[in-house]
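Encode chain A's predicted structure.
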Amino acid sequence: MSPIVISVLVAAGILLLLGIGYINHMVENNALEKARLRADLTDRTRRIGDLSEVFPGQYMTPSLKLLLVGLELKLSERLLTVDKNNAELRARIAYLQPLFAQGEGIVPGNPPQPINNDGQAKEVRFQLETLHGQITRAAQEGLLSANDAKQWIANVRHILVLLHIEFFTNLGQQALQQKLPRQARLAYERGVQFLRKQPNVAQYKAEREKLEQQLAQTEAMILASDQPHLEENTELNAGLSQLEEDDVWQKKKIYD
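Encoded structure for chain A:
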């Protein structure tokens, strides 16, 4: 075999090895990308599904329910392309499709969850942060139009304000039931201050006036409860003054 033929065969072998390595690299990258995409879509569908099921009913409107069902359905269909043998996913898609087909006639069915403590308020704030993030991501990927996403983000902020109103109102009522008017006053004051800081103050005028009325009533209760103590102190001071006068008179009588 001539040296030229040997050189050609060696070169061909090297090229073949390089080609095989490149193909293996591409296959591995594709597998990694599919695994990353599967993990990402699985996480997002889970988050959105959880929001759809557990978000407090007092804030869950048919429009919001439809948004969540639609996003979960679209992401689930994407996930199915990289996880074709997932029977549970197919069943979920079959469940979501007729729900989404109902349009604005969809019935949320989420039970109300009164916000009575800081832990509950923080949980709903976390859910709203998740919702905000999913709306933003959906807009970036073309699942929502930029205008729709803008409106939904404004709606998320509105729900956040409603959450604070309910939280401070319930705290005040609980404190009054426990005969702690000063704590109730603090809760109502925080609610009023929060609403006064909103950029669209007029939108929540009725809610702010109601909290201000509750604040005024609570302050009147505190003032009324303090009045007997003030009267007692006044009587005590008057009695002490009389004793001092008598003492001075007695001393003057002795020295005279």
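The chain has two domains: 1-113, 115-225.
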